[in-house]
Predict the structure.
Amino acid sequence: MVILGFSQNLWADKQATRRRMRIAAASHDLQQLEAESYDSRLDGLVDALLARGDTPADDDAALQTRLVLGAAIVVMRSVCDRWLAADGDGDLVEMVDHAFDLLVSGLRPRA
């Protein structure tokens, strides 16, 4: 999974990752810039993934891809926030994997 690979890259240099995340979290301007660019980055990712397919994507495929990518981004951001709040304690890759398990279990119908 792409997100797990990304979290492994972040985990490769734990100190540098924590330092970058703290700087970004402390800067209102960086937070604002990220929020403003979120939709365009998401649109670009959706377009890139859909372009990789063998058949043209319909509206439902585009929406599904956007929903899945959006959820994955929220998982990653949520885990990174929690990891940073814990001062980098814990294995980021395991935390991301666990968060996806929580997401999937939250989407299952309750008995």
User: Anything to note?
Assistant: The CA atoms of residues 102 and 108 lie 10 Å apart.
